[in-house]
Amino acid sequence: MQKQAIFQSRLLPYALVAPQLAIVLIFFYWPALQAVIQSFLLQDAFGLSTTFVWFENYVELFKDAAYFEAIVRTFLFSFAIAVSSLSFALLLAVMADKPLRGSMLYRTLLIWPYAVAPPVVGVLWIFMLHPSLGVLSRYLRNMGVDWNPLLDGDQAAALIILAAAWKQISYNFLFFLAGLQAIPKSVFEAAAIDGARPMRRFWTVTFPLLSPTIFFLLVVNIVYAFFDTFGIIDTMTRGGPGTSTVTLVYKVYSDGLLGGNLGSSAAQSVILMVMVIVLTGIQFRFVERKVTY
Amino acid sequence: MALRHFGAAAAIALTVGLSASPALAVTEIQWWHAMTGANNDVIVKLATDFNASQSDYKVIPTYKGNYPDTMNAGIAAFRAGNAPHIMQVFEVGTATMMAATGAVKPVYKLMADAGEKFDPKIYLPAITGYYSTSKGEMLSFPFNSSSTVMWVNLDELKKANVEIPKTWPETFEAAKKLKAAGHDTCGFSGSWITWVNLEQLSAWHNVPLASKANGLDGFDTVLEFNGPLQVKHLETLVELQKTKTYDYAGRTNTGEGRFTSGECPIYLTSSAFFGNVKAQAKFNFTAVPMPYYPDVKGAPQNSIIGGASLWVMGGKSAEEYKGVAKFLTFLSDTDRQVYIHKASGYLPITKAAYAKAKEEGFYKDQPYLETPLLELTNKEPTENSRGLRLGNMVQLRDVWSEEIEQALAGKKTAKQALDAAVERGNTMLRQFEKTAVK
């Protein structure tokens, strides 16, 4: 396959990528630069008084033990969210990939939840599991479980992970299904003829052939868990009880947008950005080696 | 044919437009608010009535989302040089607005500059105190005010043979009896944990929440709510939480359904809960003043308000300010205040409007609508009960809630939790002090 395109004019390729570059510059690099600048400033909400404070915002953060707890918590949450939503989506995709009647219908239904906004997800789960409003919590109580995520930090954390993972399942499902359908059927048939049972076929044929998809989704899911979950946390627990559901991105949101403390919020978002860059780098450097394209 | 008519119409419109050019010079006044439903109707009616009452100014109300959204939108607009004239800001945003000297135009100054008749004495001091300096200068114009009250399910209390409690010890006893009578998941509860159990509790017992008159006299204020009264109160709640005689219902008002569903027969929250109670409760109910500790000398004092006020933004022309001032005078009118009170359930802000509503017998069948007023006007406000003005209040409340939750979950003692809340809060206040415009 020929990969290199041949352009007649030397300027044409630049002209073609220019709009894309402009968008990236304006909507990604410009705000990122703004965040870096803001993180060195101490400013009131209205921007009336601005003091340049060098690294004071960062120093304050690293003096705060709660910030380190939030870092550890964020990693635990992200890991739990990524693993649970990936494994469950894979299970659903493998089942939906079977030649069944009406498969189009339930494939579509499985994709739908992705269109739900994070705060709506939060509200939805609240209606099921809120200690007093929740439908499910009544059953849990009747079963003898002391279900109260308003005071029990572990339960609240489980609730956030559950809701955040649930939200991401549809997206993962979509990619897994496409990945599964791209695997040639003849490979399975050959394995079957060789006498491999379904579980063995899955682990030795499907899973390795799906590895590029899994790797891609792993990156996407971690970025999602890091950046996109504050809406769910805000509607469900507002970081509580105690600080047991305060993650890094929620702290950025609550300090900056709710508290008007822009300097600290900017410093936190810069740290968060660096973390995700490093994390993605590590993934591409080490995990990608195990991926067979 | 149709085209000819159109041409004629256009010609007429043009002449009318040209000849009516003085009318085009109407000064527009932008009013950003956070009211929905019936309260939004009230806002629209007020603007429409004002616009109809004169021809020089036009007030244009715009809904900007909930309280924090409206405030953030206003701040963002100000940074972009495009702020509205009037902005509705919830009470916890007061310090942030006040610290922004230059971004806002204090109401007392606005009225003086515009030559509008303005007597701060006609307003209820318990309400205006929150929005005034220690010298009594009104900084923002009170609009919708509420206070904390105790909602009571009369049917359930009767069934359990319990009198409506007046003091905290009576409330605890009542909750125990209610629990024994079948309310085993919740004897009593409440919303807005910090507002009810720290801020209002302190004011109601004339105990400081913070130094410098709770921050009204300066930003160099220090939190002081880890005193014996607040510690004792939290200790009792922690103890009752173990048996669910008291059951924590969250930081905001998401737990209010527990009252309307009948699960919690006693519930402390805002008087603005009235609309929901009336619509949803299938039982007889009332709202009574917050309980107090009888062993605290002078208790109960007076409660402090919740809700929002109208801030006038800075950097506008004298003509525009004149219109804003006229609009505020228009809002202060007695009949109009009575209308707002009746239509929204929020408090009237002038003494005359309160007297008139009383005279009309408005509180005869709905005594609970007077409860917040009785609390607010119970005694002349003191240093500790005039109001709160603490920077970063939204964040402060979250930090206080975090610590209280730790105590209720049994991870810290009440004293440890409140000490930590004070310490963490003070750090945030110092941070705020640094950024406040001097």
TrEMBL record, chain A:
Transmembrane domains' residue ranges: 12-32, 75-96, 108-128, 156-180, 201-227, 266-287
* Keyword Acetylation part of the UniProt annotation: no
Extract the Pfam families matched here: BPD_transp_1 (PF00528)
Gene3D superfamilies assigned: MetI-like (1.10.3720.10)
Q: What is this protein called?
A: sn-glycerol-3-phosphate transport system permease protein UgpA
GO CC annotation: what is one?
plasma membrane
* Record text on subunit structure and interactions: The complex is composed of two ATP-binding proteins (UgpC), two transmembrane proteins (UgpA and UgpE) and a solute-binding protein (UgpB).
Q: Which family does it belong to?
A: Belongs to the binding-protein-dependent transport system permease family.
Span of domain ABC transmembrane type-1: 71-283
TrEMBL record, chain B:
Chief location category:
periplasm
Signal peptide feature range: 1-25
Keywords attached to this Swiss-Prot or TrEMBL record, sorted alphabetically, are: Periplasm, Signal, Transport
Identify the CDD domains for this entry. PBP2_UgpB
Task: Please name the Pfam families in this protein's record.
Answer: SBP_bac_8
The subcellular localization recorded is: Periplasm
Is NADP found in the keyword set? no
Q: Which GO terms describe its cellular component?
A: periplasmic space
Q: Which domain of life is it from?
A: Bacteria
Xref: PANTHER family: ARABINOSE-BINDING PROTEIN-RELATED, SN-GLYCEROL-3-PHOSPHATE-BINDING PERIPLASMIC PROTEIN UGPB
For this protein, the record's NCBIfam families field holds: PRK10974.1
Q: Which family does it belong to?
A: Belongs to the bacterial solute-binding protein 1 family.
The subunit field of the Swiss-Prot or TrEMBL record says: The complex is composed of two ATP-binding proteins (UgpC), two transmembrane proteins (UgpA and UgpE) and a solute-binding protein (UgpB).
Task of the protein: Part of the ABC transporter complex UgpBAEC involved in sn-glycerol-3-phosphate (G3P) import. Binds G3P.
Tell me the protein's name: sn-glycerol-3-phosphate-binding periplasmic protein UgpB
Which organism is this entry from? Answer: Bradyrhizobium canariense
Organism classification: Bacteria, Pseudomonadati, Pseudomonadota, Alphaproteobacteria, Hyphomicrobiales
